[in-house]
Amino acid sequence: ADQIAQTLIRTFGKQKVHWAMMFSAFLVGIPLFFEIGFVLLIPLVFIVARRTGVPIVKIGIPLLAGLSAVHGLVPPHPGPLL
């Protein structure tokens, strides 16, 4: 998680790290269910928040938005079937 956080911060910058979290959650959410993606990515939220000084909520909400968008729109997930 440290290396991923460092790469995201370096690529997107500290000001746009919330976009990086949404994009990474969207990519991780394609092959995984919402709950599994959340459990895998939550350590990344804490590390990025600690390194950038951005509040955890400002990083965590885009992560949840990316995961829930994929969960509701991509057909292999149970969300669109309901």
UniProtKB/TrEMBL annotation:
Lineage: Bacteria, Pseudomonadati, Pseudomonadota, Gammaproteobacteria, Pseudomonadales
PANTHER family: GNT FAMILY GLUCONATE TRANSPORTER, HIGH-AFFINITY GLUCONATE TRANSPORTER
Name the record gives this protein: Gluconate transporter
Keywords assigned by UniProt, alphabetized: Cell membrane, Membrane, Transmembrane, Transmembrane helix, Transport
Membrane topology: Multi-pass membrane protein
Subcellular location: Cell membrane
Chief location bin: membrane
InterPro entries reported in the protein's UniProt record: Glcn_transporter
